Amino acid sequence: MPGALVAFRPGCDDARVVTADGGTPDVPEGEQRRAPAAVVFDALGAAYERAFAGSAAHGRSLAWLLGRLAPGSRVLDVGSGTGRPTAETLARAGHQVLGVDVSPVMVELAARQVPAASFRCADIREFPLDEGSFDAVCVYFALLQLDRAGQTAVLRRLTRALRPGGHLVLATVPLDVEAAEGVFLGQPVRVTSFPADALAAVAEGAGLEVLERTEDLFTPAHPRAVPEPHLFLHCRRRDAARPA
């Protein structure tokens, strides 16, 4: 279950995190509990990046997106993790990248490693997103700890944040599971996902056209890892996204 499993509940309770522009993330008053994925990815830190650095399919997906972006495009990276490879690759190509992740440790790492991008420690369900404000959105394995209704709602919200004709790249572990208990790189997790055809239908229902679909089997570079099926959907927002 890779790719910055973002917990979609406010949980950034570490005010020491510094964003790329020198600010600090807002911490909801009275929010003391840690979000489940924040706990997981705070614990993993840079080990997560090392485990998935060898994903050739992820690299090909980024190349697909880069080939469709105009110079200086605005890109939202959901579940940005350590900033590598997604935000770093896009920023190096001259694009304006905003990464959002629930893990304070990941945001701190990303801000340090990819200073050309901006990062926010936030819940993507609640993070302000203006209609049509991004040329592209990346969602690499970032929805796996949401239930299916939540994943559907977030995809609709992210589609609305795209300009008409803008691109969205969505990757997941395509399994027919709901609230499945498991272990990810030594950390206990609870995961929900869709089979490949069902996720493609969710994307279409959100107002996206699936232009390309690829599948891969990848084994993370970690002693506790097992081979994982990976699905990449390369999409474009239709002229008018459907309402939530």
TrEMBL record:
<dbReference type="Pfam" id="PF13649">
    <property type="entry name" value="Methyltransf_25"/>
</dbReference>
<dbReference type="InterPro" id="IPR029063">
    <property type="entry name" value="SAM-dependent_MTases_sf"/>
</dbReference>
<keyword id="KW-0808">Transferase</keyword>
<dbReference type="InterPro" id="IPR050508">
    <property type="entry name" value="Methyltransf_Superfamily"/>
</dbReference>
<dbReference type="InterPro" id="IPR041698">
    <property type="entry name" value="Methyltransf_25"/>
</dbReference>
<dbReference type="GO" id="GO:0032259">
    <property type="term" value="P:methylation"/>
</dbReference>
<protein>
    <submittedName>
        <fullName>Methyltransferase</fullName>
    </submittedName>
</protein>
<keyword id="KW-0489">Methyltransferase</keyword>
<feature type="domain" description="Methyltransferase">
    <location>
        <begin position="75"/>
        <end position="166"/>
    </location>
</feature>
<dbReference type="GO" id="GO:0008168">
    <property type="term" value="F:methyltransferase activity"/>
</dbReference>
